[in-house]
Known about the structure:
This protein is α+β, with helices and mostly antiparallel strands and about 160 residues long. The chain has helices at about 55, 60-75, 90-115, 120-130, and strands spanning about 25-30, 35-40, 50, 50-55, 80-85. It is flat.
Amino acid sequence: MEKPKKIKKIKPIKEVKEKVKKTYIFAVGRRKTAVARVKLIRGKGETLVNDKKIAEYFPGEISKNAYSRPFQATETLGKYYAIIKVSGSGQNSQLGAVVHGLSRALDKDDKQSLLLHNKETFHSLLKKEKLLTRDGRQRERRKIGQMGRARKKKQSPKR
């Protein structure tokens, strides 16, 4: 008796998605131990932080004002969007790192395109707002022989 031939299943042809290579400007922003890696892209789009919308990752009006400051200073609100990966430290430090990274990316883009905006470069506008300066303040380390924190001392005897 003959065995029936195996019928091969035809696999559907996978659709090949064409990857559109978008040019971006890369910059790194830092604050305390937070590091933000920013890819700034020209055009309209949603700014993402760790694959979440920026408004979800940094909720609140104060945060919104902070991360839109570089765009308001250079009058480029809505002309750019970014993909940001941020790690380390707390939420406020991460926000500071994102703002620093966005400012550096805008500065770098202005240097590449050599566009003058109101006869002032992005660099001078961002420098006036103090957005290009890295805040170097770090947490003070705990010293040995002390009570838990950096400057807390043991109580001295009264006599």
